[in-house]
Amino acid sequence: MASTSNAKKKMSLQKKHNLIGWAFLIPASLLIFVFCFYPMFQAILLSFKKGMGAAQTWAGIANYSRILKDRTFKQCLFNTVFYFIIQVPVMLILALMLLLGAALGYYAAEMLLQKSLRVFRSRMRGLFIVWAVLLLGVAVVEFDLTGYERRVPETEEIQSVALINDGTVTADAESIELTRKIHQTAIDNEEHNRQTDAAGFIHIRYELKDGSSLSRSYEVDNSRDWVDNSGRSEYALCRELYLLPQNKELLMEAQNKIKAENIIFCDVERLLPVSDEFSASYEQLRLSPQQAEELYTQCILPDTRDSMLGTQWFYMDETAYESRSDTSLYMHLESFDGSDDGLYVFSVNITLDAERTLVWLEENLDIEVKPYLEVRPEALEGTMYY
Q1: What is the pLDDT of residues 43-67, one digit of tens each?
Q2: What phi-psi label fits residue 304: left (phi over 0), alpha (psi between -120 and 50 degrees) or beta?
Q3: 123-136 pLDDT tens trace
Q4: With contact defined as beta carbons under 8 Å apart, do 111 and 119 qualify?
Q5: Cα 346 to Cα 336: distance, rounded to the nearest angstrom
Q6: 49-50 and 324-333 beta bridge pairing
C-alpha cells in the first residue's frame, strides 16, 4: 500500500511539473504562431490569389507561372545566387589563397636564390613586407586612393544616361549634364551621407562613346529638412531631372502600346479617410479591359501633354501633393510584344488638372475626385520618399 501511495504521489508530482512546463510553453508558442506562422500561412495563401482588397479571386498557380517567366525575377534570382552562394565564398577563398600564395611564392623564390631549404625562420621579415604590399593594394581599392570611384565622366565621353532609379535611357544633352551634376553632388556629400539616418538610394548609369558603361549607386540623405534647405540635395536635383518636359514625354512613350488585349485587369483606386488602424484605407472599382483602354487612350494620354498628369516627382512633398487627387489607376498587363517578359504594372496618380480624365471618371464611374491632402492631411508629416 505504501509503495502504491508513493507511486501515485510521484505521478501527481510529475503531472504538476508537466503542467508548469506547459504553462510556460503555451504563451510563447501562441505568440510564435500568431506573429510568425500565421502571417507566413496568409502570405502563402495570398500568393494563390489575384486582385486587391475585397476584389481578390483565386488564381491557382498563375502567379507562380507568371513570375517564373518574368525577366526581372530571373535576374534577381541569379544575382542572389551569384553574390551569396558563389561570390562570397569564392572571394573569401581567393583572399586566403592570395595570402597563402604570396607566402609560398616568396619562400619558393628565396629557396631558389639561397639554394637552401632553411629560409623559413630567417626570411620572415620579407614575408611580412610582401603581405604589407598586398594590404596596401587592398587599401588603395577600399579607400579609392586612385580616384576611380570618384570619377565623373566628361560630357564629351557620354553617349547616353539612364534616368536615376528608372532605367529609361536618354541621350538628351540637358539630362546628361544634370545627371553629371547629381553624380558630383553625391560624391561631394559622401561624408554627410555616411552620417545620416534618413537614407534613400540613387543609381546612376552612363553609356560611354567607347562602348563601355559606368554605373554607380549611392546612399543619400532624403530627409525633408535636407532636401528643402541644404541647397545641395541629390533628391532635389533628381526631381529637376524628372520634371524636364522631354523626360516626362520619354517616360510616357513606353505606355503607348497599351491595348485591351494586353490588359489582365485594371483598378481605379480611391483613398478613404483613416478613421482607425483597422479600417480599409481605400476602395477599388474594377474596369473592363475595353474601359481601361478607352480611359487610357482617349483621356490619360492626351492629359499628360497639357496637365501635370504623368509627372514623376521623384519624391513627395507639399508641392507634389497639392497637384494630386485621391484617385489612382493601376493596370496589370501582359507583355506588349508577346514575349515571356512577364507581368507589367502601369500606375498613374490622377491629378486635379487632368480635365479629360476627371470627366470620364465622373460620367462612367460616378467618381468626383478630391484633393489628396483633403483626404490624407497627415501625409505631410512623413519623410519624403521615392
Answers
A1: 888 888 876 666 677 888 878 877 7
A2: alpha
A3: 566 667 766 777 78
A4: yes
A5: 12
A6: unpaired
